[in-house]
Every structure is written in C-alpha cells, then in structure tokens.
Amino acid sequence: MSILIFIIGTIIGSFLNVCIYRIPRKKSVVFPSSHCTSCGTPLKWYNLIPIFSYIYQRAKCSYCGEKISLQYPTVELLNGFIYLLLYYSFGLSIDFIFYSIIFSILLVISFIDFKFQIIPDSLNILILIFAIIFKILQYTLYDISPNIFNSILGLIISGGLFLLIAILSKGGMGGGDIKLIGVLGFILGIKFSLLNIFLSFILGAIISIFLLLFKIKGRKDPIPFGPFICIAFMIVTICGENIIFWYLNNI
Known about the structure:
By secondary structure, the chain is mainly α. It has helices at residues 2-22, 52-56, 71-90, 94-116, 121-142, 148-168, 175-213, 226-250. The protein is 70% helix and 0% strand. Helix 7 (175-213) crosses helix 8.
C-alpha cells in the first residue's frame, strides 16, 4: 500500500507542476493538454511518467532538446513523500484525503510564491472551501463537533496579526501571506495557529540566513514568506500535539 500511495502522490505531483506553471500566468490547468513550454509540442504518455521520464530524457525535451527544470521531479518526489507521511500519520481515512489535498495545494503555493512572489487568491479560497467541507463531513460522518467558533477565532487572530505586521512594517508582509495564514488558522484553530505562526518565523529566520550565507539570495532580494507558512503548517499538522506537550513539560 505504501508504494501505491507514493506512486499516486508522484502522479498528482506531475499535475501540480502544471498548476505551478499555469496559475500565475492565468492559464487553464486543464486545457490544452500537457506540452513542452519551449516548443509547444504535445507530450505523449511516456513523456509524462513522474520522475522516470525526466531521468530517461536526461532532463531535456525529447522534441526540441530544451532543458527541463529540476523543479518537475522535485515536486513529484516531494508530493509522493508527503502522501506517504500523511498515510503513516492518519492511515486511509478522511483526514488523510483532506490533508493530502491541502498539502498539495500548499506545495503549489510554495513554489509559485518562491518563483513569482505572489500567492493567488484562488488557491487560498480553495483551501477554505475544502476546510469547510472537511468540517461538515467530520460532523456528518463521525459526529465530531466542528467548533466553528475556534476556527473563526483562528482565522481572525492569525490574519489580524499578519495584517498588523504588514501595517507596521509598511508592506513587509504581503496580502497573500495574510490570507494564507488566515485560512490555515481556520483549519488549525487558535492554539495551533499560534504555533504555526511561531514556527513560520523561526523557519523564515533560519532559512533566510542560509540563503544569504550561501549567496542564493542577496540582502536586497525579496524572500517570500509563504513557503515558511506552508512548511510550518505541515509540521504543526503532523507534530503539533507533540511539540506543545514537549514545550509544556520542559519549560
């Protein structure tokens, strides 16, 4: 089962690459079918096998010889491993399905924000829609109280805090970041939202220092904050309870 979950993750990861390329360019993610972004040649099924096609084609388009970005197998691998991690954490459950969808969307957001410094509103809205559906299904199927008040509080406080930071820093925090932390706060509720915010700033500081030290980014280069929010959310989702337990027993 683990191998199947990983394969499904990589296949969906291949579609995520389409989203990463087309959404910021305001193109349909459905039509036209997959094609080389350099020569426009429609790709055959054997050009689209996750990871293996990239290796077999030696990172080049089979038709025009243009180099294929390392992003493509990276996203496929990441999504495959993310699905495996979620499978080990939640088993085959509604939680697994929900978080697989959310984590995949966050992967798209992370790469788009890193490359274009934008977080499309459509993706934030999509997360919120799936979150509402998930809470309805939890209540309908398992009689689990959705605790809407806690969710709304998580959204308002998370989004409000980032809005305040944006105002005080005069644009140091983007509107997309504010909306993203808000919708993730709706999923997490107030307690885990605060942990998500804290971890995102810790990750942001550590990774930014790394990027500057290795001259991947310059001091004046913008470093998008969205990927840090996404990574922190993934950590909180998987390990949030353990982190809080450790903190309360060691501080």
